[in-house]
UniProtKB/TrEMBL annotation:
InterPro entries: EmrE. The chain crosses the membrane at residues 31-52, 68-89, 95-116, 128-148, 154-173, 194-213, 225-245, 257-279, 285-304. The keyword Membrane applies. The lineage of its organism: Bacteria, Bacillati, Bacillota, Bacilli, Bacillales. It comes from the Bacteria. This is Multidrug resistance efflux transporter family protein. It comes from Anaerobacillus isosaccharinicus. Keywords: Membrane, Transmembrane, Transmembrane helix.
Length: 321
């Protein structure tokens, strides 16, 4: 399934966020600057892409047509998500934040009943695909096993401040993404949707940056450079790949769950990155078992999605004959 491959590639670039956010915190950078700088850098990058594709006018037309949904769901999918992630990085190590973030693979499935699908002439509330939920929960067990390696070194304060904001982010990101897909339909591509969401959230990032300036002064050169890298790798490349993948399967809740489950692979990339760049210890035996469970879970998701696709293809062929 091509969408799962895109999701895994997105996870690799998303991992940069957790590694560099923690790196910036360890070097004394404020989470207020880490969060806002990423989106400031995304504006010119996405502006050039959308402009070269000659898609600027349709985007502004869509935003003008439904300003409130753009504002609300962009805030949910970007500000509430990324603000919470960077805040958590101030209190918890990258492995804790990245590991807790994997709750999003179950959160995305549980959000299903908040959306509708058209069957015939009726508008029906979507159901939770329990097989996909079971496989995603299985992956989550692997993530929890990885967390055991360092759990004894984490204080209660670190656990609360490093975990609760990430849980909020884990629900906010898929909710904002799915609602924006619903708002835009097929009228906008992924680049337009991301750029529009960034523009809609700019006022919030300006306020956050202003608070950061008052509290800690301007960001250091090192933080600016690392935020720029995060903007390119995570903000543009990873977000675009992930949005393309989810947009392709937006009408199939089971496949959408499979694509969202690819975010579990982030833990693998974060562990590798922290070992290489931040001198973190290698995974122990329990954590290694967790890694194998995650990989097995992703294989099951891919198999289930492919099997469902084959069955539906045969069903359509039978009806046509």
């Amino acid at each position: 399934m091509k969408e799962i491959t895109l999701g895994i590639l997105a996870s690799m670039f998303f991992a940069v966020t957790f590694i560099l956010n923690r790196s910036m915190e360890l070097s004394g950078g404020s989470w207020l600057w880490s969060s806002s700088l990423r989106f400031f850098f995304m504006v010119p990058l996405l502006f050039i892409i959308v402009l070269l594709r000659k898609n600027m006018k349709p985007l502004f037309k869509e935003m003008k047509r439904q300003p409130l949904p753009w504002l609300v769901w962009s805030f949910t999918g970007f500000v509430l998500f990324y603000g919470s992630i960077t805040f958590a990085a101030s209190y918890g190590p990258g492995w804790l934040v990245a590991g807790t973030w994997q709750i999003t693979i179950v959160a995305g499935i549980l959000l299903g009943p908040l959306f509708y699908e058209v069957i015939g002439t009726k508008k029906v509330r979507k159901k939770i695909p329990f097989r996909a939920l079971f496989i995603s929960s299985f992956i989550l067990i692997g993530v929890i096993l990885i967390q055991f390696q360092n759990s004894g070194n984490v204080s209660t304060n670190t656990l609360l401040l490093g975990v609760i904001p990430v849980i909020i982010a884990a629900f906010s990101y898929p909710l904002g993404n799915r609602k924006m897909m619903e708002v835009c339909g097929a009228r906008l591509d992924s680049f337009q949707r991301i750029f529009g969401m960034v523009l809609a959230t700019l006022p919030f990032w300006i306020v956050i940056a202003a608070i950061g300036y008052v509290q800690v002064g301007p960001p250091s050169t090192d933080q600016v450079v690392q935020s720029f890298i995060v903007a390119i790798c995570s903000g543009v490349i990873a977000t675009t790949l992930f949005f393309i993948a989810t947009n392709r399967v937006r009408d199939d809740h089971s496949k959408l769950a499979s694509v969202e489950a690819t975010q579990s692979v982030q833990v693998l990339f974060v562990i590798i990155g922290e070992v290489v760049l931040l001198s973190s210890p290698l995974p122990n035996l329990i954590a290694t078992c967790g890694l194998f469970i995650i990989i097995l879970g992703m294989i099951l998701h891919s198999y289930y999605s492919k099997k469902t696709e084959t069955i539906r293809g045969l069903s359509k062929l039978t009806k046509a004959n």
